[in-house]
Amino acid sequence: MKRAVLALIFPLLLLGAWQLAASGSLLSPAYFPAPSRTFEALYQSIISGSLWSPLSATAVRMLEGWVLASLLGILLGSFIGSSRLGREFLQPSLEFLRPFPASAIIPAAIMLLGLSNQMAIFVIAFGSVWPVLLGTLHGFSAIEPRLKEVASTLEMRPIHYLFKMAIPSALPDIFTGIRISLAIALILAVVVEMQAAQPGLGQNILLAQRMFRSPELYAGIIVLGVFGLFANRSLNVIEMYFLNWKDQR
Amino acid sequence: MAGRGKGLLVPILVLALWEMLSRAGVLPIETLSRPTDVFAAGIAALFDGSLFVSTFQTLQAAFVGLCISIMLGVPVGLLIGISPTARLTAAPSFEAMRPVPPVALIPLSLLIFGFGVSMEAAVVGFACVWPIMIATTAAVGTVEGRLEEIARALEMTTFAYAKKIVLPATLGRIAVGVRVAVGIALVVAVTVEIVVNPRGLGYGMIIAQQSLRSDLMYAQLIWIGFVGWFVNGLLMRLDDTVLSRFNVAGAEQ
Questions:
Q1: Using an 8 Å Cβ cutoff, are B200 and B57 in contact?
Q2: Chains A, B: CB contacts under 8 A, how many?
Q3: Do B62 and A189 contact (CB within 8 A), yes or no?
Q4: Residues 77-106, chain A: which have Cβ within 8 Å of B?
Q5: Which fold has domain B58-85+105-247?
Q6: What is the mean pLDDT of residues B218-231?
Q7: pLDDT at position B77, please?
Q8: What percent of chain A has pLDDT over 70?
Q9: Mean pLDDT on A126-148
Q10: CA atoms within 13 A on the CB side of A55
């Protein structure tokens, strides 16, 4: 109870001061609109339903790219990670690509695919595949050697070894990668919407800025923050479900 | 050395195959330039200095943003780490702000600062402040408990305790947070340039794309990769030296 009060004091004081300063016209309403106006814009967009179509467009785009990246990353990562040759030949190239700014691929993607939804999905998937791929690779190279011996003693087929031993054992590393790539996917979804005129929250806040509608701009940022938090929490639930065997030791 | 050779083999093969397919007319040269053309465009941009100017602009914005995030993140992180009241009061608000994608602030920053270094640095600062703040807060938790008792016995003020004891003891871990932030800074700077800001490497790529200079665009793309890789490698080495110094200092106590 005391925790909740303390946690609320700081933002409430800040917002209260902001509200007062804005109504006393100490702050320019063009840059820092009163919080009440921001919340009203947010409330209006929820009531009128104009929030849902850009939000779902952004969410769907992000999810498509992210799921594609996760599947590709796990597939390629387990493929490369299972073979020593694959690691030796490909890992240096992949490590080189890791610090690469994913958004830098946007101009190339526009050139190749045009201003289309495919381009958006491609950029999101390309940008968010690396954490999953490298996480899977790391997980596979850290598999206990004795597990492999057990598998060969039991004469397990490679496919059974993959699904019963290798992937479960690498799963914590895979999830670390998946978590990072979810954040990247949301960022890139917003970026492509701004850059390539795809409908969604990113485009909405850029348009709000161009029309100097600052309350809508702030409302859009709040919605993106809440959505980011929601996506991350949902992933926590999924992760708990898949990794609960770890705590049952 | 043999391992490095193996690592280089695949990219070289891919480039050779690309060049051959392009010369055979299989790949469209308007959108996928030949590696040799890309190389030539890159060399030309290096010699006329344009690549250095835009690299400087990008690194400048990334650096200013990083400085902002260090100046904000380290003191706030120390405060949250040292004082339980500050943690209970402010940490939930920061947790609520952290999931906001930094790129969502691009329009806001543009509205407030207009085009230029400031708006780019502000977005970079917002993106980088979180890893630094989190690393600092976590580092305070690792400070030897007896040091706090000593500070209390010496009747140090909280400020003196933070400055004379906590900061030196946590510097190594803060450096790790800063290293994470540097990688983010470069990515965010390029992103801001691609989306709106007319300066730096990101904007150079957009201009090359819009004027259908795909060779120049790919050259800049690869150059950005090298800059990222170079900065990362530099920090890796810096980190090793900084960390080993602090570990040695810690072991001697």
A1: yes
A2: 154
A3: no
A4: 88-93, 96-97, 99-106
A5: MetI-like fold (1.10.3720)
A6: 87
A7: 92
A8: 98
A9: 86
A10: 19
The type of residue at A101 is: P
- Each residue's pLDDT tens digit, B5-42: 777 888 888 888 888 888 887 777 777 788 888 888 88
Best A13, A38, A76, A106 residue to mutate vs chain B (most B CBs within 10 Å): A106
The Cα–Cα gap between B198 and A197 comes to 18
From residue A86, give the alpha-carbon distance in Å to each of A90, B9, B250: 6, 12, 41
Whether the CB-CB separation of B99 and A228 falls below 8 Å is answered with yes
Tokens of B75: 């003191």
Return all residues near A124 (Cβ < 8 A) that are at least 6 apart: A61, A62, A64, A65, A66, A69, A185, A188, A189, A192
The residue assigned the tokens 């031993």 is A165
- Using alpha carbons only, what angle is made at residue B172 by residues B167 and B175, rounded to the nearest 5 degrees? 100
Name the pLDDT band for B82 (thresholds 50, 70, 90): confident
The yes-or-no verdict on residue B160 having pLDDT over 60 is: yes
User: 3-class DSSP state for residue A247?
Assistant: coil
d(CA B132, CA B136): 6
What is the per-residue pLDDT for B251?
39
pLDDT digits (tens, 9 = 90+) for B236-252: 787 777 666 665 444 33
Kindly report the three-state secondary structure assignment for every residue of B8-41. HHHHHHHHHHHHHHHHCCCCCCCCCCCHHHHHHH
Q: Is a pLDDT exceeding 90 seen at residue B133?
A: yes
Q: Looking at the domain that runs over A62-243, which CATH code has it been given?
A: 1.10.3720.10
Is there a contact between A110 and B209 if contact means CB atoms under 8 Å apart? yes
All structural domains of chain A with their residue ranges: 62-243
Average pLDDT over residues A83-105: 79
Do the chains contact at B111 and A97, CB–CB below 8 Å? no
**Domains of chain B by residue range:** 58-85+105-247
